[in-house]
Amino acid sequence: METLTVMGQRAKTAAAQLAKTGITERNNALKAAADALLAKRDTIQAANAKDIEAAKKNQMKPAMIDRLTLTDARIEGMAEGLYQIVQLDDPIGEITSMKQRPNGLMIGKKKVPLGVIAIIYESRPNVTADAFGLTLKSGNAVILRGGSDAIHSNTAIVSVITESLKECGINPDAIQLVTDTDRALVTELMHMNKYIDVIIPRGGAGLIQNVVQNSTVPVIETGTGNCHIYVDEYADFKMAEDIIFNAKTQRIGVCNACESLVVHSKIAGEFIPQLVDRLKLKNVEIRGDERAMAADSRIVPATEDDWGTEYLDYIISLKVVDSIDEAIAHINRYNTGHSEAIITKDYDHAQQFLNEIDAAAVYVNASTRFTDGFEFGFGAEIGISTQKIHARGPMGLDALTTSKYVIYGNGQVRK
Amino acid sequence: METLTVMGQRAKTAAAQLAKTGITERNNALKAAADALLAKRDTIQAANAKDIEAAKKNQMKPAMIDRLTLTDARIEGMAEGLYQIVQLDDPIGEITSMKQRPNGLMIGKKKVPLGVIAIIYESRPNVTADAFGLTLKSGNAVILRGGSDAIHSNTAIVSVITESLKECGINPDAIQLVTDTDRALVTELMHMNKYIDVIIPRGGAGLIQNVVQNSTVPVIETGTGNCHIYVDEYADFKMAEDIIFNAKTQRIGVCNACESLVVHSKIAGEFIPQLVDRLKLKNVEIRGDERAMAADSRIVPATEDDWGTEYLDYIISLKVVDSIDEAIAHINRYNTGHSEAIITKDYDHAQQFLNEIDAAAVYVNASTRFTDGFEFGFGAEIGISTQKIHARGPMGLDALTTSKYVIYGNGQVRK
């Protein structure tokens, strides 16, 4: 493999060239890449088989092996994802807020690509095609560092894409994969400020925290969600039960799943048993404080650690509070800035919750599971930012752009 | 001094309270603080005298002592700055792009404060009042760490402001100063991800690089500007000469001053001597490549280091190129992503330069000295971002905000 520095230089060159391309050129390249993924599915699946074999040898859990496997449907899904990205508007080139200053200077703000984006991710090889689609559409070059479990699959996917880029006359360095799985290279990547404009980690909490703690390149933190639902004293019980059941059990391993409940004490005695009945249909373990346990004997005790835990499992914590203020304080203390919901029929409580909860997405009377670029109507998603700078919440193509001030003068000098 | 952790906790509490304030309350607090700075100028100047005495003892250069000195005019300037911030629109609370999704969810994007901002800066104590004004207006709490040279002045200014906040019923922890000048505390501050949402360094390249290299808290990089002016073969010579003279000499110690020239070879012989005549009026030293030296014997040789140097002095580098492509490549290689200008009468060259130069601000036929929040019409400036994420170029109040998605539902669950 080439050194990372060489990869960085190549990426920077490719980014400068991509910044000059038009949307038709980029869309054609995306279509060609999608076609190539379909045409060369045998090659990709042969490489994927090697990863699966190694995974079995390493006694990987069946659920993980399933995530790793590139079935026909998943390869078609990767191609379909690229075709969908083609349909989206060009995120690049628009000049907004062009205004004339008193001295005659015309100053406008133009949307431009970020430049070089590095994405560090785990297991699922379809992220490789997704990441390529979003970065190329937005005129960026990407350096990918996937998990070692998927190295053969990722190498094959990137090779198919680069071949198709060459045929379209696009610099194939627009997408580069770090094929050496040595972890030291991740550290090196995180310090390549000269060549990389932003790093986006995608994966578990360990991976994300490693990048946040060690990268000198600007990071967009994605992911972990300790999402709460607060059932207000003025909630519709049936709605609360339906939303909680959905947010906890519709898909358990995702960052927008609900991990913790907060229930008003006035309704605890009546609502909690009804809720537990429902959650027990999916064998959800409920860990509660003393008042929660007093309301239903099937609830087991929660420890302090439970309030801050993202289970990603059929487990949920439950705290009883005496007011909406206490609920908001609890949520703002333990949440991860992802998605929080209130279930209420009270107008003032709904507004107070929306105003005072500090998170990327705050809901009234809806499931936290909607925090997602597709559900928000962005047409694509590169991840969900849980930090406050640059992008917050689901990130679509817009999050992969920056701006440049363009200034038209006719000889102005500063007084 | 309290521990930084306690300061962080207090700042977070203050930020949560500020997020609930209305603009009238925040504007009244800003006016009260400005009034207090004027009313207590004697106290501030007495503290400032201690800093000046210490500076003289430490043989600080007269120019630096001048920057440190809080004359009547400068204190009035600080107050005036706060009154001006009062006049600006509230950057907080607007909900944009509220749209209904097919499932009936109403999803809008609301502007909210970032939360807790840390600002690490050097010498000039008036930055203390500026930083307070911008962060309070945008509903943020701020933790300030100024230079040790100005510690007495900064302590006095912050004390005057916190007293006035108390009188307005605002939590005085909205502004806190790290009074212990131990450098280890800067390192600690840079790792307080739990309490600080963003760090903005303001000062020299050393300070900024220390923060960029070591902070785990997200950073907005500001500052260093190796700004170029390219004199195209189709330039108006008089305009080029005026703009370069302005950009180099109008104020030398600032990040938007011009540090490097690029001149087309076709006009080098005629234009360079005329330019050198003008720059020599201010005794500017010109360091050039061989062709530049051939054009004028007053030009001294440049080394490779010169192309990347921000002089902040009466020195400028000069390179001769054979095409606009070569000029753009040179500038994109050595610039710091700040401000770059082309002087030309050619339409295509102007557009090409605007499109292909990778910098926060790109000018046609104007001085780079205009890159500034006030000149851009933002009414205020917290610094000039030279990174690509979150904010790029001059940062006004808007750069101190983030967004929160607010979602109104009526029982939606995800299918």
Q: Overview of this structure, please?
A:
The structure is a homodimer of 415-residue chains. By secondary structure, the first copy, chain A, is of the alpha/beta class. Chain A has 2 domains: 4-221 and 387-408, Aldehyde Dehydrogenase, Chain A, domain 1 (3-Layer(aba) Sandwich), CATH 3.40.605; 227-370, Aldehyde Dehydrogenase, Chain A, domain 2, CATH 3.40.309.10. Chain A is built from 15 helices and 16 strands. A 7-stranded parallel β-sheet of chain A has the order 10-9-11-8-7-12-13. In chain A, strands 5-4-3-6 form a 4-stranded parallel β-sheet. The first copy, chain A, has a 3-stranded antiparallel β-sheet with strand order 1-2-16, with no helix packed on it. In chain A, strand 7, helix 10 and strand 8 form a beta-alpha-beta unit. In chain A, helix 3 packs antiparallel against helix 7 (151-167). The longest helix of chain A is centred in the N-terminal third of the chain and has 17 residues, at 23-39. Chain A starts with a helix and ends with a strand. Chains A and B meet through helix 9, helix 10, helix 15, strand 13 and strand 16 of A and helix 9, helix 10, helix 15, strand 13 and strand 16 of B.
